[in-house]
Write a structure and sequence with these properties.
320 residues, TIM Barrel, 9-stranded parallel β-sheet, two-stranded antiparallel sheet, binds flavin mononucleotide
């Protein structure tokens, strides 16, 4: 599929995940064939006010391509001011967050709060397209709540105003992350617009990706939580879709990937911050393994990479 002129290959992209899918994680997912990447959400207002943290979130390398910068905003004016500030980071597209359910985002009229006003979504996309040198995409949910499933209307208006692709997470804001994901609404959006539609929600392996493709007729599947502690999910989905068998990494490889990931986090963020952030990933990488409770306790106490290497070696020994 194509987003504007940008070719997207493969079977599954990585969704934006604030606090998780940073440059280190995106690069690890790229190694396993993820199709496309998006930064953690960045506040348009924060950018306009010169917030340094917002700038750091937009750093993209050639190892994670095609890649978009995701912005959240509540007005056409803010998006129009923010997009020119993203240009120096070289995004392949700009994605507008219309799905975040977090109260700190929605209380300012951003994220999924926008779904209550599809016309405003259209004006935001129009303003973005007007100033953006790269394609503009949107990421929406099913709607604000069960009484207001505005996804189809929002998608149609966004496409009419120039959105080049639409990611749909099949849950309302009210549901947050609770099941079920509504695949029907993704199919309805697919039928309502002619631009590519990316299906999102609860894809955790090749079979659930294939189910998403078959039921919704989406152009691409996007994976979030299913990649936590298992970035090889992208290779698994690719194999499944091609009718090939996939051998997931064994315990030794799994720990080697975790250590490579941890080393990247520390390299990009410095060891002090990096180790803090590594702990949650380490716990995800070790889910389902023997000796979990004790391991979790020790992992939550690591202060350097050498300690993580020692724990990884013990895990490999224990789980052979
Ligand atoms: C920790 C976390 C952070 C997230 N951050 C973002 C974000 O920055 N932007 C966004 O559009 N969605 C964000 N989401 C939503 C995901 O992109 C995705 O739509 C959702 O997790 C459903 O997909 P999944 O079932 O594959 O996880 C986040 C979700 C989680 C769990």
């Amino acid at each position: 599929m194509k987003i504007g002129g940008v070719e997207i290959c493969g079977y599954a992209s990585l969704v934006p995940l604030a606090g998780v899918a940073d440059r280190a994680f995106r690069e690890i997912c790229a190694e396993f064939g993820a199709s496309m990447f998006t930064t953690e959400m960045v506040s348009a207002k924060g950018l306009i006010y010169g917030d340094r943290k917002s700038e750091e979130l937009m750093f993209l390398t050639q190892k994670e391509r095609p890649a978009g910068i995701q912005l959240f905003c509540s007005s056409p004016e803010d998006i129009a001011k923010a997009i020119p500030l993203t240009e120096k980071f070289g995004p392949d597209f700009i994605d507008i967050n219309m799905g975040c359910p977090a109260p700190k985002v929605t209380k300012n009229g951003c994220g999924s709060a926008l779904l209550r006003d599809p016309e405003l979504c259209g004006r935001i996309v129009a303003a973005a397209v007007k100033v953006s040198p790269v394609p503009v995409t949107v990421k929406i949910r099913k709607g604000w709540d069960a009484q207001h499933p505005t996804a189809v209307e929002t998608a149609r208006i966004c496409a009419e105003n120039g959105a080049a692709a639409i990611t749909v997470h099949g849950r309302t804001r009210e549901q947050m992350y609770a099941p079920p994901t509504d695949l029907d609404v993704i199919r309805q959006v697919r039928e309502a617009v002619s631009v590519p539609v990316i299906g999102n929600g609860d894809v955790t392996d090749g079979a659930s990706a294939e189910h998403m493709y078959r039921v919704t007729d989406c152009d691409l599947v996007a994976v979030g939580r299913g990649a936590l502690g298992s970035p090889w999910i992208f290779a698994g989905i690719t194999a499944y879709m091609k009718g090939e068998t996939y051998q997931a990494p064994d315990i030794g490889e799994r720990m080697a990937i975790m250590l490579r990931h941890a080393a990247k986090i520390c390299e990009y963020k410095g060891e002090r911050i990096g180790i803090n952030e590594t702990r949650k990933h380490a716990i995800w990488y070790t889910k389902g393994l023997r000796g979990k409770a004790e391991l979790r306790r020790r992992m939550s106490e690591i202060t350097n990479l050498a300690q993580l290497e020692n724990i990884a070696a013990e895990i490999v020994e224990m789980n052979r």
